[in-house]
């Protein structure tokens, strides 16, 4: 059985309309899988994060990009995996140095919010070039900022 969302996490995710925004991002970037941009450059991706105002690092062992933001009682981490031309988005939150295990990949967050683990899956956004990757990251980072703002206001 999957751990339930805490009331604070649920309220913050609902306040930013997480499911519909996630669905919209997926629908907008639902390209033909045969046109995926599988051979992206790590440095080019890091440059896009920087251009969007984020100091991301790359975890070579696990092959994902990471953004960490620390506040007095909270630590937020946003991981982005760009394998096979798809963008997997993963959030983690610590409160008072304890991980809020309820979060993870956006598909899991969606299922925890609506209780629908079988039907109504939202697919990973697909990018065919750096412009599309920039667009996906820009929207996802905007959601991340809204989520942090909601969590910090509670």
Automatic annotation (TrEMBL):
Protein name: Uncharacterized protein
Species annotation: Paenibacillus filicis
């Amino acid at each position: 059985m999957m751990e339930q969302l805490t009331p604070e996490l649920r309220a913050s995710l609902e306040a930013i309309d997480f499911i519909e925004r996630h669905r919209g991002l997926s629908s907008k970037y639902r390209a033909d899988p045969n046109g995926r941009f599988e051979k992206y450059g790590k440095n080019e991706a890091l440059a896009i994060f920087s251009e969007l105002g984020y100091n991301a690092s790359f975890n070579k062992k696990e092959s994902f990009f990471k953004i960490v933001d620390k506040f007095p009682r909270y630590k937020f981490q946003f991981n982005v995996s760009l394998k096979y031309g798809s963008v997997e988005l993963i959030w983690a939150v610590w409160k008072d140095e304890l991980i809020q295990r309820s979060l993870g990949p956006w598909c899991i967050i969606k299922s925890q919010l609506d209780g629908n683990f079988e039907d109504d899956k939202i697919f990973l956004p697909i990018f065919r070039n750096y412009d599309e990757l920039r667009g996906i990251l820009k929207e996802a980072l905007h959601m991340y900022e809204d989520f942090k703002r909601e969590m910090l206001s509670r």
